[in-house]
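ESCALATION

Customer reports they have been waiting on this structure for their group meeting. Please prioritize. Original submission:
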Amino acid sequence: MAAPLAYSLIATDLDGTLLRGDDTLSDRSRDALARAAAAGAQHLVVTGRPAPRVRPLLDDLGGRGLAVCGQGAQVYDAGADRLLFSVTLERELAETALGKIEAEVGQVYAAVDQDGVDGLTLIEPGYRMPHPTLPAVRVQRRDDLWCAPISKVLLRHHALADDELATVARSAVGSLATVTMSGPGTVELQPCGITKATGLALAAEYLGLGPRRTIAFGDMPNDIPMFDWAAHGVAMANAHPELKAVADEITKSNEDDGIAVVLERLFRGR
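Update from on-call: job pushed to the front of the queue and completed.
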């Protein structure tokens, strides 16, 4: 009789973690995930990207299951192409939060991810997309960002580093929103209390699973709540120091198939 799986749920971030810098998934990583799936483990993408920006990647993975998107604000059913769960950030809260941040640091440049499976990413004048491969629609003025319900706001500053901007934003915003840093040039405001952990917990509940049999992979501070929830957190070699400090294990970088290295060890011979 085969030994029980050490982990039945594999939660992976995308950018800087599962994906290479060119947004591709290596054959080695693909094979490692397939081996884990053949052994009975389930793979769950947990990403800051909104559902519309995740759908093509899930199609490439052959995924028809669930994904946690928008920093936990969305649980997406890829097979049915619908959101099982979504939380939006109220316009008034977003505008107040932006005002408080700009009172501290001067002008910031903003973008938003609209809610829904066909939601757009809108960017105001001056905002530069950190991922040029992701589609976005430029609007003429900030008020145009609020033309439909949103799941989060993305911020950039012309001079402050990401860590500095995130620190100031947390202090200024308080309980109006949750502030996360999810990658280079990516400081975000999302509904208060929403994190990758809240989305992961909800998706795991849908799957009949829990934290005790979950292994999580990530590279940025927004993955810390996910690591806190899961039984085992694995940071990539390229991860932010804050995430490495709380990780149970550090693997190779995303460019060197760090997730595959761990999964090959865990599912060897299965």
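Sent to customer with the following note: The longest strand covers residues 150-156.
Escalation resolved.
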